[in-house]
Amino acid sequence: MFDIKKYFTDGLKNTLLFRNNSGTSHAGPWVQVYDNTKLDRWHVGDFSSAEYTISADLSTAHKEILKVLVTASVDTASIIVYSRNNTGRDLIEVTATVNSSYVDIILNPILGVDSSSSAGTKVIYTAQYFHNQNPLTT
Q: Does any domain span residue 54?
């Protein structure tokens, strides 16, 4: 029988403590990146911001990981890639679009300096969403 208390316990300040230096791992499902690939969507009435970790895998030689912050209101979305690491070249571009209802996180392949395409790159991601503290008014 699986004993969850073997892996987790109560941490400080209402956090979850991973026992024995354990962690999480992620395997998918993945999506392939072509022009204007939608990675995620969330409603601006629910969340004000999100933090993403995006892992990109084009081939055995071309891999990348990005840390991305997105903040949005009903008419504005702001995005910043604050960390990026890869095995030789950038593979994907991340943008955000917003309308009065939702935010879309969009990926596009990047051309290499040798004009090689990164179209078809497989990506997986994790996200942390942060709720609005002030409800939207109409």
A: yes
* Structural domain boundaries, residue 47: 26-131
The span from the CA of 138 to the CA of 126, in Å, is: 31
Domains in the chain, number: 1
- The DSSP line for 59-106 is SSS-EEEEEEEEEE-SS-EEEEEEEEEESSS--EEEEEEE-SSEEEEE
pLDDT tens-digit series, residues 9-59? 999 999 999 988 888 899 989 999 999 999 999 999 999 999 999 999 999
Q: In terms of Cα–Cα distance, which of 88, 114, 105, 122 is closest to 39? A: 105
In 3-state terms the chain splits into helix, strand, coil percentages (rounded to 5) of: 5, 55, 40
pTM of the entire structure?
0.91
Could you give the CA distance from residue 86 to residue 10 in angstroms, rounded to a whole number?
35
Rounded CA-CA distance 118/135 in Å is: 40
CATH code, 55 = 2.60.40.1680
